[in-house]
Amino acid sequence: MKRLSQSPLDPGFIQNPYAVYDEARARGPVLFWEDYGMLAAFDAATITALLRDRRLGRQNPEPAPAPAHLTQWHRVEAHSMLELEPPRHTRLRAQVLRAFTSRRIANLQPDIDQIMQELLAALPATGPIDLIPQVCTQLPVRIIARLLGVPEERWPDLLRWSNTMVAMYMAGRSRAIEDAAEAATGEFVSYLTDYIDRRRGDPGNDLISELIATESAGEKLSSEELIGTCILLLNAGHEATVHAMGNAVKCLLEHQTDPLALAPQNIAATVEELLRFDPPLHMFTRYAYEDIDLGDVTLKKGDEIALILGAAGHDPDIHVAPDLFNTQRPGRPHAAFGGGLHFCVGAPLARLELQSALPALFAHLPGMTLAETPRYAATYHFHRLEKLLIQP
Fold this sequence. Notes:
By secondary structure, the chain is an alpha+beta fold. It has one domain (3-391): CATH 1.10.630.10. It is built from 16 helices and eleven strands. The strands form three sheets. It has a six-stranded mixed sheet. A three-stranded antiparallel sheet has the order 5-11-10. The radius of gyration is 21 Å and the shape is globular. It starts with a strand and ends with a strand.
C-alpha cells in the first residue's frame, strides 16, 4: 500500500496544500495518509464516486462511547443530520429542505444587500483594514441568524459558540479545545432550548418556526433533533462561507482580476471558479459499510476514508490547467459543497452571499490592494486565512 506522510500542521502544507495533492494524486490516487491513520483519495473521479456511493456513509458503524468530558457535544452530534444516514438522515433533511426553500433563500437578497452596505459604510477610511472580522465574518453569521429567526444582536455569541465547537474538527485537537467545545455546546443548547420554547408560543416567519410547525404536525421531530439541526445550520451556515469569501477576495486581488468578472452576467461563473480554485473545506470523511475495491487498495468494512475535496478541483483530468485561475473556464463540476446524500444544504445561500457580497465590496473599494501577503491558518481541514489586510 502506498503511503503519504504529511502533517496537516506543517507550515508549507498549510500555505500550499495543492502541491502535496498533485504529488499524492500522481502516486495514488488513493494513499494511506499516515498522519490521519486512514486511506485518502486525491482524484476527482474517486472522490465523486465515493461521495455518491451508498456503501459508505458519515455514521460510524462502531462508535466509541462518548468520553465523560464531551457528553453534551456528543449528544448534539448524535442528532446532527451531517453525522447520520438513512432513514433518520432522510427524515431530518426532508424537513429542513421543506423550510429551506429556494424562495426563502431568494427572499434574503434584500437582507444581504442591506447588511453588506451597512458593513461597507462602517469600514475605516484609511487602512490597513482586516476584512475577515469587518466583512467576511459578519455577513454570513448575521444572515443565518435572520434566516433561522434568532435575534441578530446575538451574532457575537453565535459566532463564539460556533467557532469553539467547529475547532473540534481541525487538526491539532487537544483536551483544552475539547473542554472549550463542551462548554460552548452547553451554552448553545441552553440558549436554543429557551428560545425554541418561546418560539412555540410566538411563531414567526422564520426557519425555526417552520421546523417547530413540522414537529407539531406529527413529523416526530424531537426537541433534541430540533436543537441539533439548528446548531448544525447555524454552524455550517456561516463557517465555510466566511472562509470562502476571504479566500475569494485574496484570489481576486492577487490575480488582478478584470472587474468584468464581477459583472452581473459573469459573477455566477466567477464564484464557481473561486470555489474550485481555493475552496474553504478540504477534507470530508466517510465510513465503509462493506469492503470496497479502490483499484490498488481495498477499503475495509468499518474503516474511514478521507475524501480530499480541495484536491478534486485541481485534478487535471477534469480541469485543464487547474492551477490557473480562469474566470472564463468552461463550467465543470467541483466538489466544494461535497456531493451525494450530504451535499451541502446551504449551497444556494452560500452562492447567493458570494455573488452579492463580492461585487458590492469591489464597487465600494475599487482601488483596494493587499496590505500584506495573506497567510492561511493552521486549521486543516478548513482552508482559511488568518487575516486579510487591505489598503482601501
